[in-house]
Amino acid sequence: MQQDMHSQWLVRLKWDMAIALPFSIIIGWSISAEATSNSHQFVQTSLVPESAEKLKKANSLSPEETFAAMSTSMSQAIPAESTEPLDAVPFSPLPRSDTNGDRDDDSQQISPSNPVTRPPLEQENGASDSLQHLEPEPNPLLIQTRPEEVEIIGVQPLSLEEAIELAYRNNPDLQVALLELEQSQAALREAQADYLPTFAVNGTLQGQNTTQSSSSLVPTPDGGVTFQSNTSEELGVALSAQLDVAYNLYSSGRRAASVSAAEEQVRLNELEVERRQEELRLNTANEYYDLQAAIETIRISQAFLEEAERNLRDTRLREDVGVGTRFDVLRAEVQVANARQDLVNSERARQVAERSLARRLNVPPFLSITTLPVQLSGSWPLTLEESIIAAYQNRVELEQQLIQRDINEQLRRVELAALGPQVDLFANYQVSDTLTQDGRFSDDYQIGIRASWTLFEGGAAQARSRQRELDIAIAEQNFEETRNTIRLEVESAYYTLTSNLTNIDTATIAVEQAQEALDLATLRFDAGVGTQLDILNAQSELTDAEVNLVQARVGYNRSLVELERAISDIP
Predict the structure, then answer these.
(1) Quick one: pLDDT at residue 114?
(2) CA distance 405 to 401
(3) Mean pLDDT of 18-25
(4) Is residue 242 part of a domain?
(5) Which residue range is the domain that position 51 belongs to?
(6) For 265-274, what is the mean pLDDT?
(7) Cα torsion angle, 344, 349, 351, 354, sign
(8) CA–CA distance, 368 with 545 (Å, rounded to integer)
(9) Residue with more model confidence, 351 or 209
(10) Is residue 179 within a helix (H) or strand (E), and if so which, with residue range?
């Protein structure tokens, strides 16, 4: 009877190597150990980083070339040390790939994408320096827990230009667009990594402890038998290592199409940043004008209340001296009550408009925002027809639809590449040695070309290609719809601008006439030929005329900024 007891232990060493141009090598390694016997237990440990992360690090651009101004803004909404203003200037575009011609899959040139910087804003009179105290909380995950942390303790007056600058610097939605752009650039580097070979090194250290036991009955000289047991142990240690190299020689156009699609995606995200900038400028201006209108309405309501209270005092005096009636006093009191209610409603509207603008600008929670007085922004130099053509030439939404069409075309090529041949070059070299025995060293290597061609896969690739063709058709229809929408936006803003300009002249004359009518009504009443009702009506008409004038001015400014947004290229 003989028993063999084996106790094995195994240690594997693994290296991963990624090569990126120019001349950078990333090597990661891991150690793992395992046992096959119940008496030995090893814990497996992996220290190998993800290959995509290593490729990202290996291909990353230098700090001077990658988001020098934008990197700080990703961790802080406003960099404390940054005094350079921002402006809505489009990013430097990547070289456009040829999506219609055939590209040589084996001669693809790899180059990193152009660095993208945060768009600068126009800065006037050191505005950025004066707005440093409006930096939001650097930690975006912070939430206030005490009432005093959200109590309004200060008021900050802002011009429209300063408000737009703050929006560009602080608004989280724009920061998300910048992060998505950086994400697409990383995806481009991932696609370019397919043009590089892969290296892998594997090492194994294996130990085996063999125990042999035997027992037998041995006859003795006196004719009896005796029981005899023998046990022997043998320790064997083997070391082996292997280097594997693989490179895709031909992919039927899959790699070229993937890189082209990634390049177009970067360009699409660049345009998306520009589009969100323009939308942010429009929304900020509209909310700024809302606050301006609310503040002006408070001023008008306050003046009307003061005039109504003065009229009430005069009416009571007339009643006291016997020249007035109780009816006149009651009407004056009703007018005062209505004026107070209008003032309260105007104050509520101002508070809502102020907090809406503060949210857009992402200012600290303890600050309140106020605006400068209402002034006309300027004039529009183009005709309606010129404005429409300018919008067609400048709006990024149209180019986005064309780029989306190109992306779908490249993705269609990727799907069809699955039906073409794939050619890979591979090589490996392996050495092994039994350390506990002499003369047990060996090595071998392999090198070759591996080709594969999928002859039939049920039509899945063709179906996916058809989906991409339909996406192309959808992008073309979206282009037409976007073009029609752009024209409508230009026409609507243009007509509103011209009507508001006419309303400004009309409302200005109406205010002058209403003021003159109020003065005459007061004189007629003092002379005894007018009534209290004439004064009340004149005061109400003056208030309405002043409100109409404010609305016409603010409406003109609002339609002007909407027309600028519709054109997309006029700051």
Answers:
(1) 34
(2) 6
(3) 37
(4) yes
(5) 1-60+197-250+421-453
(6) 95
(7) negative
(8) 30
(9) 351
(10) helix 172-192
The b/e string for 194-216 (b: 16+ C-beta within 10 A; e otherwise) is: bbbebbbbbbbbbbbbeeeeeee
Instruction: Please give the residue that has the higher pLDDT: either 32 or 486.
Output: 486
In terms of DSSP bridges, do strands 442-452 and 367-371 run parallel, antiparallel, or are they unpaired?
A: unpaired
| Chain centroid to CA 10 | 48
Q: Which two tokens stand for residue 385?
A: 């027809």
d(CA 147, CA 346): 26
Q: Which residue has the tokens 């036991």?
A: 213
Nearest-angstrom CA–CA distance, 489 and 497: 12
Q: Contact 308/316 with Cβ under 8 angstroms?
A: no
Q: Mind listing the pLDDT tens digit for each residue in 114-154? A: 333 334 333 333 445 566 667 777 777 877 778 877 777 87
Q: How many domains does the chain have?
A: 1
In a domain, 550, yes or no: no
**Number of residues in the chain:** 571
Strand-pairing partners, residue 384, are none
Q: What is the largest CA-CA distance in the chain?
A: 161
Pairing of the two strands 24-35 and 225-250 = unpaired
Residue 505: inside a domain? no
Please name the residue that has the structure tokens 């300018």: 390
